[in-house]
Amino acid sequence: MTGPIGDTEILATVEASPTRRVMGVGMLAALGLLTLYVGMSSAPGFGWQVFLVVIAAASLWMAYRMWQATAHRVELTPLGLRCSDGVEIVSIADLEVMDRGFFAFKPSNGFLMRARTAAPRAWYPGLWWRTGRRIGVGGVTPGSQTKTMTEIIAALIVERDHKA
Predict the structure, then answer these.
(1) 163 with 122: CB under 8 angstroms?
(2) Cα 97 from Cα 116, distance rounded (Å)
């Protein structure tokens, strides 16, 4: 990718370890297969059978999407966050607030940010998501990597505000 976040050095990365990746995807796939089995073998009625098959399909689809998404990583550059496939997540200049508190509605082992401007929705299950101005990073990622990234982002925000 070329552009504002594409041509700079990488300061920190967040990626799912192979073990976390397999465990997360495996649990979703197991849920889907178990729900499918119950729906096909012992559902109390047709309505329940349809419901359980829909839940099974959604779980298996989520496992597939998580497998695809966790093959990537989130990279922090001096200009902002990007995904390893080239998708720009948010620029440091556009960041308004970062929340990594205990009671924040954030992904597991992750953090939450709010941008000044809205961006198109994007969702990489287990890695990051964006809805409008809100961005979450984390999921099946190690907390040590996200903590390091938040500290560097905080320093970049302080540096940005000091220059302004």
Answers:
(1) no
(2) 9
Any bridge partners for residue 12, and if so which?
76
Map 100-146 to HEC letters.
CCCCCCCCCCCEEEEEEEEEEEEEECCCEEEEEEEEEECCCCCHHHH
85 Cα distance to chain centroid: 14
pLDDT per position as a tens digit, 11-24: 999 999 999 999 99
Q: Which of 54, 49, 29 is nearest to 39 (CA)?
A: 49
Q: How many residues does the chain have?
A: 164
Tokens at 155, concatenated? 């320093």
* H or E segment to which residue 154 belongs: helix 143-163
Structure tokens at 2: 């070329």
Taking only Cα atoms into account, the Rg of the chain, rounded to an integer number of angstroms, comes to 19
Q: What is the pTM of this model?
A: 0.83
Give 57-111 pLDDT, tens digit per residue.
999 999 999 999 999 999 999 999 999 998 999 999 999 988 887 777 778 888 9
